[in-house]
Amino acid sequence: MTAELAIHASGLAKSFAGKPAVIDFSIDVPVGTIYGFLGPNGSGKTTTIRMLCGLLTPDAGEGQCFGFDLRRETLAIKREVGYMPQRFGLYDDLTIRENLEFIARLYEVPKPRAVAAEAIERLGLGARRNQLASELSGGWKQRMALASCILHRPKLLLLDEPTAGVDPKARREFWDEIHALAAEGITALVSTHYMDEAERCHQIGYIYFGRLLAHGTVQQVVAAAKVAAWRLTGPGLGTLASRVKALPGVEMAASFGDELHVIGTDIALVERGLAGMAEQTKIDFERTPATLEDAFIHTMSGASAHAS
Q1: What is the b/e burial string over 141-153, where b = at least 16 CB atoms within 10 angstroms of the residue's CB?
Q2: Are residues 148 and 71 part of one domain?
Q3: Which domain holds residue 109?
């Protein structure tokens, strides 16, 4: 492992009761990278992240997290990790300040009151420091949870669907803070279902049935999928959607307001079908850049077809 890498893993695998959860997983994550993990529920995202952070021992494979072996030095790894679970896990009957001071003491952080106060100011919690956690909205609970993760100044943040149920403004502010932490050299592993959040990650990986199907920057993942997209407009698209979906080469046709979004890989084949429909109806169509969601739908469809 080189000094620039926060995480190096090769051939990781994990099964539960004989059922594979992660299969032959390999990855390199540079220091200061925000790495997003996407995939359906049960795809192996959380299991993978836990192995990378020393929270779960792999059945096979090898790797290091900040130079510590994933199998033999898990305690050292855990000291470098700040974990933010999907569900709020702090104490409802304590205030923000009391929660953070208590957690700082659990971490045995020197000067816990000062460290908690610093985190409160950093996350914009100052005006609410004496408010009970039970009285906070989802967005404020999220800020407090993130503050609790950084009290011991970890090198690695593990964020498991951190913005589930949070309003768009709070989500954007949360991601601004994650990028600020990454700029300071903190590495983050983020599990998310939101495509707009994935697009804010430096790198992403798509896991399906325990396998890493695609990874890299957003631009790299979209380019590697080699999928094309079209925008259809015109009257009666709602009634024509099923016909568009049945055209040769069309992998997906989805409504977005008054438009229909179509994807496929055989450009000539799809455009012949669309041109034929345009002659018979009043619809218009044009190429549009493929999105990350398009790339993942295409990748998942291919993986499902291969598995069957």
Answers
A1: bbbbbbbbbbbbe
A2: yes
A3: 5-218
Q: For residue 258, give the CATH number of its domain.
A: 3.30.70.100
User: CA-to-CA distance for 95 and 97, rounded, in angstroms?
Assistant: 5
d(CA 103, CA 83): 12
SS3 115: helix
Ramachandran sector of residue 56 (left: φ over 0; alpha: ψ -120 to 50; beta: rest): beta
Tell me the pLDDT tens digit for each residue of 53-110. Answer: 888 999 999 999 999 999 999 999 989 999 887 776 788 999 999 999 999 999 999 9
304: pLDDT strictly greater than 80: no
CATH of the domain at 138: 3.40.50.300
Distance CA 70, CA 57 (A): 7
pTM of the predicted protein model = 0.89
